[in-house]
Fold this sequence. Notes:
Layout: E1 2-7, H1 14-32, E2 36-38, H2 50-56, E3 58-59, H3 71-83, E4 86-88, E5 92-95, E6 104-111, E7 117-122, E8 128-130, E9 136-138, E10 143-144, E11 151-154, E12 157-161, H4 170-178, E13 183-188, H5 192-210, E14 213-218, E15 220-227, E16 230-237, E17 241-243, E18 249-252, E19 258-263, H6 266-275, H7 278-281
Amino acid sequence: MRISVVQLCPGADKAENLRAAAHWLDACHAADRPDLIVLPEMWTCLGGDRATKFAAAEPLPAAGTNEPAGPAYRLLRDAAIRLGCYLHGGSIGELPADGGADQICNTSLVFAPDGTEIARYRKIHLFDITTPDGQGYRESATYRAGDALTTCRIGATTAGLTICYDLRFAELFLALRRAGAELILLPAAFTAQTGRDHWEPLLRARAIETQCWLAAAATTGGHIEQTRRGPETRFTHGHSLICDPWGHIVARASDGPGWASARLDPTLTERVRRGMPIEAHRRPALFAPQA
């Protein structure tokens, strides 16, 4: 299976972001003919104020229906059909079906080549942190946390779904491995500051400890975030990449919008797991909380 991770530079203009995504999806597929394409986190709207994020969010069709659908959903579904490949839609803002007006969800969608939605994952871990330069991030002020582990079949491969800040929680990745994952997909909008020091080490660590392929599609460049202190220019790290189960980086995107592609070799996965059977060596009972 050939995988491509597409790197975008989105801002707060949803229409422009949709246009750019369609362009890079077509360019990537024309050049490399991947079986699976992965987009970054929140590529439909990065930046702006809370109202902008809510305006860009979409209600999603009821499971199994595909209709009615918003413009981002339609773009992803139609691109999967047009390109004839699996498409992981990074993540987009989802207006919850319960009609809650206080929060939206940060949601990944995966489509089969016939346009059928085969997976939906809502980001579990929300980015409420302060970076060393003093910039504050409070995703919980806008987003609602997900609460479900999600895997899906992409061809003959079981894929586990994660988003951005999830990368720092090894227990999620280990749970996906136990659920059968051979490939873990991570769309991201990693900050430039944290990305410089942590992006590559964390991705390689998650690949090594789960013995899974890791495909991480990231945003790059600057965008304007409206904060209580006024507008702030914020930068994301980019450097989208693909790791093999031994932790080697086998493909990496350059600066700016673009993509990177690699071939997932299931025989390598089998060889790594057979030679170092980590799952068989785990002793979870030793680390369970004591009554």
